[in-house]
C-alpha cells in the first residue's frame, strides 16, 4: 500500500519495513524506492517531521539501522496532523503493506473527538468496536496515550464522559486566546476550617487571578464576565463542564463559575484523585505555595504506661493505665484537642502561622488505639498480643536509640519494663531448684532453659525450645516434667510425641534421668485403645505417655478426649504441613501447656516456624496466607531486613534458641560428647531377627572349637547388618529411599540427623563396617535431600582419597561416609563436628580411633559423637557389657575374642531379642 498525499513536484517515495518488536511497539527500517537502506537520521527526520511530542524524533530509541516506536507514536506520525507533506510511504514487504493498511484505516478515528462513542469501558478494561475495522492497535495506542500522561485504567470510567464531550484528543494547553481558565484551591481563613475551590481567569499580561464579584457569583457565566471577555463565555462554560465531569465533588454547576467550600476530607480526596487527572489532561490547577512542598508530618506522641496494681512485680493480667501526650512543632496538643482533630477529619492543621499536613489514617489509628485502651481495660497480655500499630511495637532493644528525637515515645513503668524484658531476653526469671529426683547435674544454660519452661507454663504461654542439636533439649524437658509431677504434684498425664526413630531415646533417657516418673509407651500394635486406654490411665496413672506422630494420627479420636497437663512435640518440624492428617490430629489434642522441641534453625524455615507457632499459640501469627504475605514473601523473596526484625521481635518471647557457636555456652561444654541414639527394630526386622536366632543357635550346639568361633563371628556380622537394614541382611537391591527408610528406624534416624546437621551449616562423618550400608546411605541422602556424600572404602586409590579429604576439609561437601577399617586411622577430618557410628564395633579402640579423625589436634569445635544402637538386640547387650568391662584390662576388650569364647547359654542370652 502507498500512502499518497497531494501530488507535488517535490514529493519522494520511501519504503517502510514494519516489524513487531513487542506486543505494544514496532521496529521500523526505511528504504528508498530502489531498495537502498535509509540512514537512521533520514528515517527519523522523515517520520517525525512535525512531531514535537517526541522532540522531532530526538527521544526515539535507535539501533544500527532501525528505530523502535510505540503503537501510539506509529498512529500519530501517519496522522494528517503530523505526517511529512512531501513524502509518500509504501510497505517494503507484504506484511509491512498490511500494517500500513491497518494504520490508515484507523486514522479517521484516532484524532477525532467521536472516537469514544465506539468505546466500551469497565473499571479494568477498554475496547473499541468499529464496523469493518481491526481495532486492536487502537486500544493499545489509547492505553499508551493515557499512561504517558499518568492516567490509570481505573480512571477510565470517570474520564469517559469527559472524552465524549470534547476531551479527546488529549491537549496539554487548554487556554483560549488571551484567557486561561484555572481551578484554584485556597486554604482556610483564620478561625475557619473550610477550604475554597473556585474557577479563576488570567491573562499572560497580568499576575493576578480574576474572580466574579460576590454579587455576580450565582449569575450565568456570560453575565458574570466583564464585557471585554464575554466572547469567551461559551469556551469557559465548555471547559467548566469538562472540569465538573472530572471532579469527585458533587452538586457542582458548569453554567456558573465554580465556587465550592470543602472540608479536609474533601480536600484530601481532591489532592489524591482529582488533581492528577486534571493536570494530566492539561487543565491548570493553582494550589497554595506551601501545599506544593508540604510533606506529611506525624505528631509527636508520648505514652506513659503503668499498671493499676500496686504490687512490685508485674503480671500478665495487670490492667494498664495510659497517659497520652501530643505535640507538633514544639507546641502541646491536649488529648481532647487531638480527639477533636480526628472527629473533624482534619488533615491540614495550622499551628501558629505555619500549616502542617498529618496522615489522616494515622490520626484515626491513634484515636482508635486511645479509645480501645480506655474502653477495654487492657492488660499486659493485651499489650503483647494485640496487633498494635508499628509505632507501638518498637522492640525493647531499640528503645534507647529512639529516645534522641522520637516521633513516638512509648514509656513503660519500670516493673512492666522488667517483666517484658523477662519475656524478651529470658533474664531475671524466678529461680527454681533443680528437681531432687533428676539423676544428673544441669549445666547453667540447661538450668536457664528448665526455669524458662516452668515460667512459660505459669504465664500460660506456649514455648518453643529450639537449642542446637546436642545442647540437651531432652534433659531440660525431663527436668520440667519432674518439676511438674514431683514439685507441683500435677495429676493429669503429659504426652510426648516424637518420630519413631527417637522413641527409644526417650525411653532410655527418661529411665536414666527420671526413674521415678511413671512412663507408658503408647506405640505397639497391641497398645490399648479407646476405653481400654482410658482404663489404663485411670488404673496405672502414668505421668508420661510416650508416642509417635504416626500413632497419634491413628488414635486421635480417643486421645483428644483426655485433658493433658502438657503436650510436647519433639522434632516439631514434623508438623510443618498443616493440611496433613498427622498435623490435624495433633491439633485435636487438648493440653494445658504446649511445648515444641526442635534443633532446626526455625528462623530460616518460615513455613515450619508458622506451623510450630500455630501449635504452641494458635492464631498468634494469623492465617498461613496472611503470614505468607506479611513475612514469607518479603523475607524469602526480597530478603527484607525490616520484616526479619519485625518477625524476630514477634516470636522472641516464645522462642528459646542457643547455639554451640555461642561463646558463653562453649565454656560450659566438654570438648567431646558421646550420645547413644537408641532405635527400635521394625516389625519386619524383629521377625527376621528371631527367626535367624532360632536357626543359628541350633547349629551352634553341633559345632566345637574353631568352627564354632567362626560361626559366631559370621552370626554377629549377619545380625549387625540386619540391625542396619533388612535389605542388607537379605541381600536385596535398593528400593526408593522413602520405602527403604520405612523398613529401618535406624536408617531413618541417621539420614534425618545428617540432613539436620547440614541444615545447621555443619559437617559430619558417618562410619560403617559394611559397604552395603554406606551405599544405602548415599542412595537415601541423594534421593531425599539431594546431598552427594562420597564414600571412602579400602579399594579407593590413595590419590583419590587425598583429594576427597582435602575437599571435605575445605567445606566442598558436608557429609563424608567412611568404611570403619579404611577411614578409621591416618586421616585428619577436623572440619567435621559430628561423628555418626552407624553400626557398633566390638572393639572400643577401633571406634575411638575413628572418632579421633575429627576429635584431634586442630579441632576448634565442640565434637558430638552419636552411636546408633538398636533396642533389645545384640548391639544394646554388647554395649552394656563393654560399659561394665571398662575397668578390665585392655587386652580383654581390644578384640572380639571374648565374644567367641562365650558359653552356649551366655550366647543364647546375648542374642535373644528383648523387646
From TrEMBL:
Key word Cytoplasm present: no
Domain named Helicase ATP-binding: residues: 454-619
Domain Helicase C-terminal: from-to ranges: 752-908
Sorted UniProt keywords: ATP-binding, Helicase, Hydrolase, Nucleotide-binding
Listed CDD domains: DEXQc_arch_SWI2_SNF2, SF2_C_SNF
Origin: domain of life: Bacteria
Short name of one Pfam family: Helicase_C
Protein name per its UniProtKB record: ATP-dependent helicase
Species in which this protein is naturally found: Lysinibacillus piscis
Amino acid at each position: 500500500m502507498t500512502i499518497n498525499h497531494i501530488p507535488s513536484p517535490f514529493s519522494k517515495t520511501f519504503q517502510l519495513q514494519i516489524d513487531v518488536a513487542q506486543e505494544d511497539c514496532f521496529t521500523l527500517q526505511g528504504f528508498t524506492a530502489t531498495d537502498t537502506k535509509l540512514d537512521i537520521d533520514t528515517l527519523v527526520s522523515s517520520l517525525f517531521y512535525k512531531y514535537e511530542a517526541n522532540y522531532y524524533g530526538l527521544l526515539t530509541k535507535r539501533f544500527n539501522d532501525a528505530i523502535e516506536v510505540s503503537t501510539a507514536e506509529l498512529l500519530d506520525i501517519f496522522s494528517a496532523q503530523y505526517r511529512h507533506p512531501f513524502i509518500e510511504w509504501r510497505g517494503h514487504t507484504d506484511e509491512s503493506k498490511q500494517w500500513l493498511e491497518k494504520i490508515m484505516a484507523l486514522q479517521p478515528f484516532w484524532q477525532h473527538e467521536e472516537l469514544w462513542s465506539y468505546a466500551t469501558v469497565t473499571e479494568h478494561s477498554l475496547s473499541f468496536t468499529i464496523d469493518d475495522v481491526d481495532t486492536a492497535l487502537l486500544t493499545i495506542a489509547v492505553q499508551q496515550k493515557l499512561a504517558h500522561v499518568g492516567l490509570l485504567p481505573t480512571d477510565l470510567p470517570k474520564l469517559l464522559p469527559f472524552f465524549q464531550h470534547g476531551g479527546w484528543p488529549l491537549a496539554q494547553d487548554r487556554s483560549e486566546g488571551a484567557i486561561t481558565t484555572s481551578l484554584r484551591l485556597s486554604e482556610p481563613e483564620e478561625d475557619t476550617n473550610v477550604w475554597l475551590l473556585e474557577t479563576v481567569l488570567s491573562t499572560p499580561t497580568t499576575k493576578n487571578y480574576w474572580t466574579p464579584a460576590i454579587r455576580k457569583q450565582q449569575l450565568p457565566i456570560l453575565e458574570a464576565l466583564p464585557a471585554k471577555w464575554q466572547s469567551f463565555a461559551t469556551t469557559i462554560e465548555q471547559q467548566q463542564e469538562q472540569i465538573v465531569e472530572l471532579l469527585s465533588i458533587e452538586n457542582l454547576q458548569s453554567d456558573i463559575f465554580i465556587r465550592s467550600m470543602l472540608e479536609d476530607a474533601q480536600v484530601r480526596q481532591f489532592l489524591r484523585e482529582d488533581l492528577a487527572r486534571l493536570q494530566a489532561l492539561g487543565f491548570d490547577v493553582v494550589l497554595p505555595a506551601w501545599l506544593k512542598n508540604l510533606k506529611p508530618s506525624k505528631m509527636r506522641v508520648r505514652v506513659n504506661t503503668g499498671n493499676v496494681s500496686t504490687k512490685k512485680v508485674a503480671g500478665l493480667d495487670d490492667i494498664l493505665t495510659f497517659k497520652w501526650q501530643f505535640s507538633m512543632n514544639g507546641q502541646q496538643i491536649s488529648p481532647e484537642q487531638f480527639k477533636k482533630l480526628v472527629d473533624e477529619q482534619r488533615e491540614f492543621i495550622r499551628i501558629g502561622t505555619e500549616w502542617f499536613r498529618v496522615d489522616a489514617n494515622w490520626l484515626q489509628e491513634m484515636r482508635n488505639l486511645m479509645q480501645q485502651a480506655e474502653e477495654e481495660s487492657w492488660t499486659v497480655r493485651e499489650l503483647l498480643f494485640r496487633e498494635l500499630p508499628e509505632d507501638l511495637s518498637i522492640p525493647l532493644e531499640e528503645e534507647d536509640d529512639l529516645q534522641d528525637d522520637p516521633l513516638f515515645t512509648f514509656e513503660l513503668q519500670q516493673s512492666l519494663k522488667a517483666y517484658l524484658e523477662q519475656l524478651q531476653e529470658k533474664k531475671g526469671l524466678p529461680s527454681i531448684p533443680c528437681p531432687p529426683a533428676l539423676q544428673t547435674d544441669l549445666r547453667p544454660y540447661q538450668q536457664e532453659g528448665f526455669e524458662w519452661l516452668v515460667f512459660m507454663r505459669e504465664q500460660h504461654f506456649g514455648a518453643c525450645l529450639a537449642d542446637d542439636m546436642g545442647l540437651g533439649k531432652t534433659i531440660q524437658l525431663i527436668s520440667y516434667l519432674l518439676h511438674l509431677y514431683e514439685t507441683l504434684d500435677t495429676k493429669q498425664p503429659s504426652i510426648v510425641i516424637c518420630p519413631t526413630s527417637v522413641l527409644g531415646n526417650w525411653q532410655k533417657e527418661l529411665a536414666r534421668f527420671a526413674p521415678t516418673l511413671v512412663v507408658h509407651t503408647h506405640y505397639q500394635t497391641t497398645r490399648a485403645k479407646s476405653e481400654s486406654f482410658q482404663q489404663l490411665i485411670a488404673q496405672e496413672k502414668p505421668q508420661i505417655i510416650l508416642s509417635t506422630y504416626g500413632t497419634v494420627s491413628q488414635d486421635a479420636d480417643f486421645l483428644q478426649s483426655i485433658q493433658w497437663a502438657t503436650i510436647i512435640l519433639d522434632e516439631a518440624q514434623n508438623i510443618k504441613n498443616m493440611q496433613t492428617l498427622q498435623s490435624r490430629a495433633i491439633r485435636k489434642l487438648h493440653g494445658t501447656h504446649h511445648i515444641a522441641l526442635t534443633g532446626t534453625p526455625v528462623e530460616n524455615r518460615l513455613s515450619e516456624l508458622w506451623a510450630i507457632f500455630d501449635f504452641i499459640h494458635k492464631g498468634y501469627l494469623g492465617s498461613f496466607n496472611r503470614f505468607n504475605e506479611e513475612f514469607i514473601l518479603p523475607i524469602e523473596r526480597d530478603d527484607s531486613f525490616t520484616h526479619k526484625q519485625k518477625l524476630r521481635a514477634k516470636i522472641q518471647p516464645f522462642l528459646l534458641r542457643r547455639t554451640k557457636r555461642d561463646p558463653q555456652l562453649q565454656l560450659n561444654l566438654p570438648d567431646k560428647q558421646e550420645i547413644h541414639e537408641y532405635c527400635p527394630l521394625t516389625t519386619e526386622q524383629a521377625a527376621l531377627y528371631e527367626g535367624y536366632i532360632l536357626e543359628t543357635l541350633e547349629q551352634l550346639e553341633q559345632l566345637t572349637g574353631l568352627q564354632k568361633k567362626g560361626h559366631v563371628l559370621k552370626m554377629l556380622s549377619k545380625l549387625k547388618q540386619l540391625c542396619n537394614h533388612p535389605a542388607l541382611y537379605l541381600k536385596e537391591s535398593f528400593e526408593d529411599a522413602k520405602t527403604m527408610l520405612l523398613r529401618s528406624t535406624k536408617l531413618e534416624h541417621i539420614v534425618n540427623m545428617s540432613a539436620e546437621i547440614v541444615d545447621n551449616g555443619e559437617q559430619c562423618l558417618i562410619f560403617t563396617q559394611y559397604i552395603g550400608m554406606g551405599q544405602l546411605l548415599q542412595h537415601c541422602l541423594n534421593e531425599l535431600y539431594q546431598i552427594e556424600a562420597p564414600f571412602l572404602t579400602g579399594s579407593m586409590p590413595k590419590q583419590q582419597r587425598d583429594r576427597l579429604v582435602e575437599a571435605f576439609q575445605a567445606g566442598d561437601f558436608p557429609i563424608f561416609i567412611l568404611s570403619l577399617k579404611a577411614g578409621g586411622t591416618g586421616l585428619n577430618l577436623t572440619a567435621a563436628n559430628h561423628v555418626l557410628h552407624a553400626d557398633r564395633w566390638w572393639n572400643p579402640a577401633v571406634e575411638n580411633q575413628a572418632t579421633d579423625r575429627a576429635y584431634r589436634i586442630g579441632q576448634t569445635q565442640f565434637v558430638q559423637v552419636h552411636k546408633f544402637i538398636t533396642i533389645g538386640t545384640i548391639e544394646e547387650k554388647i554395649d552394656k557389657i563393654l560399659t561394665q568391662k571398662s575397668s578390665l584390662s585392655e587386652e580383654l576388650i581390644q578384640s572380639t575374642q571374648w565374644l567367641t569364647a562365650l558359653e552356649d547359654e551366655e550366647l543364647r542370652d546375648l542374642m535373644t531379642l528383648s523387646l
